[in-house]
Amino acid sequence: IVILLAACGGDAFKPDLSDTPTSGNLNIVSDESFEPLMNAQAETFMALYPNAKINVVYKTETEAFNDLMNDSVKVIIAGKDLSAEQQNYFKEHRVMARSNKIAIDALALIVNKENPDSLLTLSQFSQIITGSIARWNTLNPKNNNDSIAVVFDRSGSGNFRYLKEKFLHQQPLPPYCYALNSNKEVIEYVQNKRNAIGVIGVSWISDSNDTTALSFLNQVKVVALKNDTSVEFTDYYKPYQAYIALKQYPLTRDVFLINRQSRNGLGTGFASFVACDHGQRLVRLKGLLPATMPVRIVRTGN
206 in helix, strand or coil? Predict the structure, then answer.
């Protein structure tokens, strides 16, 4: 066996043990919806640990899980946890895949600046997604906009999966729902189309210190949603952190960092960073609700 290994290049069979929790190279695949958050996490981690190189690649949620399952990548960021089937697969192959909830995210709905309707009930949005309401004047006779166009980032993304699971229940999308290529393209489309309503991750428009996020907010209006169980006329909420924490905003989901690195390497170190104080502060800065940091809500006025 020794002779065969030497002849074939035995070093090729050794696992890569060159990284530590704070040094080495790590490739991560993240759903594109979380790009503003994960860029900040990777840049801050590398600033604190100069010997670490974090390369984040943005794909659809489906592609991220495929890469994780076939061992093309050790760490992914997604808007859902491992399924029971995926957990069983890892157990059968004796792989310890650890899943950490790192944030609570919200799907933000955006409309054109000139659209007079920026208040929707959850049932109204559900009827739009399922095809029951196809025109803005059905919601409001004074709205002169044409037929509704719903846009989201990509087929296979976490945003698309969320819409299907929550509203469609195996039904097909109506013909006026379109997939683009990114959350940024959704914002640009809504900016230029008066009849459009876009679905994006909330971190794209929430960081008040990010000039890109502020410019996006200047281009569109964020829709306030009302739960159907609410009886108060004023109970419309935008995807702000307080309303996510109080569960008053209805379109929320958990965000997970899933790590299949079986030893204490850079993947484990980065996962610990995101789940601890520095990483959770960045979660809060980007408009998501931290998963492990206590939240203080201050009520001002009525």
Answer: coil
